[in-house]
Write a structure and sequence with these properties.
Blueprint: H1 5-13, H2 16-30, E1 56-63, E2 72-83, E3 98-105, E4 114-124, E5 160-170, E6 178-185, H3 199-204, E7 208-209, E8 217-224, H4 231-234, E9 256-265, E10 285-299, E11 308-319, H5 324-327, H6 331-339, H7 349-353, H8 356-365, H9 375-383, E12 409-412, H10 444-452
């Protein structure tokens, strides 16, 4: 079945009813590539819950903090949630039939001006093996080839390996783009101490420098699940053990994800290819979101590791700001939202102006909430925050909009990394943190709870306890983050 691009665009631009109709059509298309469901808080929409390899789980955008990388921005998109580390024999890979993208808007119209595309290819070195990702090479038996097993990215014992390409597409230069690199190797999953005995070093060798001229780096592979939240309590109708900073258990502790990370010079992302120094400058803010797309048809043949790629790409997953589709967009529109471009977000505006989550917070915690319309949330999520709007921080600015709502993560590239970062970002007096982009350690759940409850300076009448002290009881990750690219922690071993 083929869905023409012009028809799809017209459907997306219509009313909420038309958007929901598109959801039904897209559901039929996506069944071509349906996969077993994985349990995770990130399974935010009915369709994508059945397709974890295409599921955007988290997005990060921040100024790099590694020494010598001050002029760079790090962008990270996570997929395939809730990875149980010991799930062999094939473990976890990216889907070779999915187009993964990280998109940047630097003009405020909700249309990507720059896109980094990632496509993966599968290789099987020993198809006669009964094992999966790791399989001892028969030729090396008796020569130390079995213990340890995978010690390099090109190890013959790395039986199910993947390579990928990176393509940069700039608006106005055609749709083909410019392939930046190809044949880049991903590390294996962290299988266990016999098979991957020095995993951290192995993964470090999978950080590839794409260009000596601008120092751009990329990584694609397994990482620790860096998002921390008591997921079982949140979705038990906010049945929280604690509504402060501590006292609850991270429901994603011990889990891994698949991460795509790219580090790009600031000047490669801004409107006029400059490196802004003034946070209030018109070109200081960029908008970022990530997507996953599948072909309208995808045919698999025996003895073929990748699908025959036919038909147009259809976007089936999208992520900008964390938790928006999960707890702001209503259930009947979640699938449609995953297929929308930020330029078409007017159909979702009512959900932000009067979110149901705020009413749930009022009912559960017996608190006052701001009255609709919630223009404070529109500023945070859909237009950005104008300079001068934050008391005590006159230069704080994430505004990027043509006057219409466009849900995307906004990053002011002129705000330097904080000397003493705070997990609550702007609400903790740290302008380098969320909602100015998102760093790996930003406590976005606590920030979102307080924002939706009206516990911010944008709604003075409700900026009081407990609205401005709400928390989910989890304030940090179970694994240390890295201080170097790709920043997310080493994934958990399948057999520690």
């Amino acid at each position: 079945m083929r869905l023409r691009g012009d028809i799809r665009e017209n459907m997306l631009k219509k009313t909420l009813t038309a958007a929901l109709a598109f959801s039904a059509v897209a559901a039929q298309i996506s069944m071509i590539a349906v996969r077993p469901a994985e349990a995770s808080s990130h399974r935010e929409a009915p369709m994508i819950a059945n397709d974890p390899l295409a599921d955007n789980t988290d997005l990060y955008a921040f100024r790099s903090t590694e020494r010598g990388r001050e002029g760079y921005v790090t962008l990270i998109a996570n997929f395939t949630p809730d990875q149980t580390p010991g799930s062999g024999p094939h473990y976890f890979k990216f889907d070779s039939s999915v187009l993964y993208e990280i998109k940047i808007d630097n003009t405020g119209d909700g249309v990507e001006d720059i896109s980094y595309q990632f496509q993966f290819s599968d290789q099987i070195k020993n198809p006669n093996s009964v094992l999966g990702m790791a399989a001892p090479n028969e030729a090396l038996k008796g020569k130390g080839g079995i213990d340890p097993l995978i010690t390099s990215l090109n190890d013959e014992d790395y039986n199910e390996s993947q390579t990928y390409s990176v393509t940069r597409v700039a608006q106005g230069r055609g749709n083909s783009g410019r392939q930046t690199a190809s044949g880049l190797v991903t590390p294996p999953s962290n299988i266990g101490k016999r098979t991957t005995p020095k995993y951290a070093a192995l993964a470090e060798r999978a950080v590839h420098t794409l260009s000596k001229a601008n120092g751009m780096r990329v990584f694609a592979g397994q990482r620790d699940e860096g998002f921390f939240i008591p997921v079982n309590e949140i979705f038990d109708t906010l049945n929280l053990t604690s509504i402060t900073d501590t006292g609850a258990k991270d429901g994603l502790a011990g889990k891994n994800v698949s991460s795509i990370a790219i580090e790009v010079p600031i000047r490669d992302l801004t409107r006029d290819r400059s490196t802004p120094k003034d946070p209030t400058a018109s070109d200081a803010v960029i908008g970022v979101w990530s997507t996953a797309s599948r072909r309208t048809t995808n045919v698999l043949y025996p003895q073929q590791t990748s699908g025959a790629r036919n038909g147009e790409w259809v976007q089936i997953s999208r992520l900008g700001n964390p938790l928006v589709n999960e707890v702001i967009i209503p259930l009947g529109m979640k699938d449609a939202f995953n297929g929308l471009s930020p330029k078409d977000d007017a159909v979702a505006a009512p959900a932000v102006l009067d979110p149901q989550l705020a009413k749930l917070l009022k009912a559960v915690f017996k608190i006052d909430i701001p009255s609709a319309p919630r223009n404070d949330l529109v500023a945070i999520f859909a237009t950005g925050i104008k300079a001068g709007s934050v008391p005590g921080a006159p230069t704080f600015n994430t505004f990027l909009s043509d006057g219409k709502p466009h849900e995307m993560m906004r990053l002011n590239v002129a705000i330097p990394p904080a000397a003493n970062p705070n997990r609550l970002g702007l609400l903790g007096g740290d302008p380098a943190g969320h909602p100015n982009g998102r760093r790996v350690f930003d406590d976005v759940t606590d920030i979102a709870l307080r924002a939706v409850a009206g516990g911010t300076p944008f709604t003075p009448a409700t900026n009081k306890a407990p609205n401005n002290t709400l928390g989910d009881g989890v304030s940090g990750n179970d694994v240390p983050y890295l201080t170097t690219f790709p920043y997310l922690g080493t994934p958990h071993s399948g057999n520690p």
